[in-house]
Design brief:
There is one protein chain. 31% of the residues lie in helices and 23% in strands. The protein is an alpha+beta fold. The strands form three sheets. Strands 2, 3, 4, 5, 6, 9 and 13 form a seven-stranded antiparallel sheet that branches. Strands 8-7-10-11-1-12 form a six-stranded mixed sheet. A hairpin with a 2-residue loop joins β5 and β6. The longest helix has 25 residues. It is elongated and about 110 Å long. Bound molecules: magnesium ion (MG).
Amino acid sequence: VRVRVGASTDVGRARERNEDSYLAQPPLYAVADGMGGHRAGNVASSLAVQVMSRIASGGWQMLAEQVRQANHAILERARGDRSLQGMGTTMTATYLDGNEVHLAQVGDSRAYLLRDGELRPITTDHTLVHEMVERGQITAAEAEHHPQRSILTRALGVEEPVDVDEFTVEAREGDRILLCSDGLHSMVSDEDIERVLLDVPDPQQAADRLVEMANQAGGMDNITVIVMEFEPGEGFEGATGGTAPPADATADATAPENAAGGRSDITAAMQIPQGLSATPPAPDMPSSGNGATGAGAPAEAPAAPAMPDRRGAEAAPPSPRHAEPAPRRRGGRRAIVAVVVVVAVLAAAFVGLRLYLDTRWFVGEQGGRVALFRGVPTTILGQNLFGVVDLTNIAAARAEAAPGWKARLRDGATAGSEQEARMILASLRADLAALQKQRNHQGGPPAPSPSPKASGGSGASPSP
Ligand code: MG
C-alpha cells in the first residue's frame, strides 16, 4: 500500500502553549499530549516523541517497549528536576508494516479507523469516565459532558511499569486512520470528524480542516491531528517530521519563575479539572516557527521552543468571526498533575493537622469509661481526630452523675497541654470523691446515674 499522510497541530484558542507533540517519521506516527505546569507538559510530550523516534527500523515488535522506554525517560527526567515533577503525557503511536497498522496506546489521545464510510474508534481512553461507563455507572453520552472526563487513569510519567494497550489493524485500500489529541475529539463530535474525513480528499487538508473545526468550536485545548490514507502503490507521501523538541526544554522549565510565577502552576492545574481553565484566548506562540523540523532532532537543536506547526504562518487562529460566543467549557487537561497537586496539598494539610492535633488534649469518654485523649473531639469523614492516651478506671456513667460533668465529658473537655488535661481529670476525681462523700453521709445507696447506658461505647462523640 501507499500511505499519504497529513499532520497538523495548533495551540488552540485558550492555552498559552502547545503541549502536544507529534511525530511523522515513516513508518512511525505518534501523537502525545503533555500535561504538567510551566512547560513541563511540553517537556514530557516532546521527550516521549523523541524516545519514540529512536525505535529501530522494522521494529513494530518494539512499539510497546518503546512506549515503556519513553515512560522511563520521563520519570528519569522528572526525578532530576523538581520543576518537572508530576509531568506526564499521553501516547498514541502507530507503526505501519505493509498494510498492518500496529498501535500502542496510553492515555486519552485516540486512534480512529475510517472504513466503508464509517468512523470507528480503535483505541480506548484511559480515563476515569471511561471506567465509569464500563462499570455501567454512567452512559457514554453522559461521559461526553462529565466534569471529570479529562481525568486520566493512565499516562506516561506516572509510574513504572506502565500498562500499554496494543492493537493491530489490517488496513485496506481506501481506509483512513486518524490519530488525534483530545483537543480534537473533545471539541468536535465523531460525526463531524467522520464527515470531514469523508469529504476532504487530501489528508493534509483534512488534518487542517479538523484543527480548524476544533478551533471554531472554542479551541479549549491544544489540537493535534494526523491523517493517514491507504491507497494502491508503495511508500509514504506527505507529512514528515513533527514538532521539534523544545530547545533546552529542561533549562526552560527550570528557569526562575517570572512575573507570572509563584505557585501559579498549581493554581492553574487545580483549576483545570473544574472547568475553570478558560484563560483568555492567546495568540500563537510569538516566535513560532518556520517549516517542519525533523523529529528526533537532537535536543540541542537551535530552534526556539516553537511548537508548532509545520505550516508556519498558516497556523494563525481562525478569524474572529468564526468564534463561537460561548465556547463549550470542556474541561482542560493536566488532570494527572491536578490529582498529584491535590494529593500534595492534602498531604501538607494532613501533616499540618497532625502537628496541630499533637498539641491538643481533652478529657472525654471511651467505651463507658473516662479517658484522656490527644487531639480534638471531632470525627471527619469517618476519621477520628483524636486518640486515647490514658483510659481511666472511672465509669463514664458515674462521672456523668457529677454535677456539670455530663455535657463536658460528652463534648470533650479540651485542654492546650497534657498537664492541663490531667488537671481536668484531677478535678473530676475530686468532684467524684466529694460526691461520694456526700452520699456516704446521706447514708443512702449511691444515686443511680440518669442514663447508665447512654455513654456506653459512645466514645467522645457528642451525644445523639
Ligand atoms: Mg489535550
